[in-house]
Amino acid sequence: MQKNRLEAFSDGVLAIIITIMVLDLRVPHDVEFAALKPLLPVFLSYVLSFVIVGIYWNNHHHLFHSTKHVTGKILWANMHLLFWLSLFPFTTAWMGENHLASTPTAVYGFVLLMASIAFYVLQRAIIAQQGHDSLLASAIGRDWKGKLSLVLYVTSLPLAFVSPWIANGLYVFVAAIWFIPDRRIEHVLEKRGE
User: Could you tell me the pTM of the whole model?
Assistant: First the structure.
């Protein structure tokens, strides 16, 4: 099967996710800068989630640039990823509205963890279809960023009940390591002349 419909559908879902998140930013009725202060946790939660969704979109784009064809298994793995990403607006709003309280912060971290696992499952489904000598398998290598992300997300879950600020610091750190462009697939494409 061709990958075009999967990419178009995924792009549409991610665009809707970002749209829903931004709609949770409420305009204050006061015209002073002080009116923005209560909205700061909501805005910061939105910024973090926007960056994370952007990172997933970027990596998803690279993932499917290295993919020739898709199978039913890949389609379902992609839907699994989109399911967890679709929960971002809810968890982002809950965490922001409750000023980074422990339970919403932990649930946000759980959704981040599950999205990370879902992305890993999608990568593995593509590699299983294309072979262990495929462009994607070569590019991913040991995938230290992916493994470190999983460890940090798991660590953040109990930390959210000790200090939600530390847990959020871990979420920001994971976003920061992925924000630096991951050029593994591009490098392999350049080496292969594609």
Answer: 0.91
Q: What is the phi-psi region of residue 75: left when phi exceeds 0, alpha when psi lies from -120 to 50, beta otherwise?
A: alpha
User: Largest alpha-carbon pair distance within the chain?
Assistant: 60
Nearest C-alpha neighbor of 84 from the set 169, 174, 10, 26: 10
Buried b (16+ CB within 10 A) or exposed e, 125-135: bbbebbeeebb
Specify burial of residue 53 (Cβ count, 10 A radius: 0-12, 13-18, 19+): buried
pLDDT along the chain (194 residues), means of 10: 92 96 88 86 94 95 88 97 98 93 97 98 94 84 90 97 96 93 67 63
d(CA 140, CA 93): 33
Amino acid at 176: A
Residue 47 burial (10 A CB sphere; 0-12, 13-18, 19+)? middle
Of 132, 113, 126, the C-alpha closest to 171 is 113
Distance CA 145, CA 128 (A): 20
Q: Are 43 and 25 in contact (CB under 8 A)?
A: yes
Task: Locate 148 and state its tokens.
Answer: 């470190």
Torsion of CA 90, 100, 45, 146, to 10 degrees: -90
CA distance 45 to 47: 6
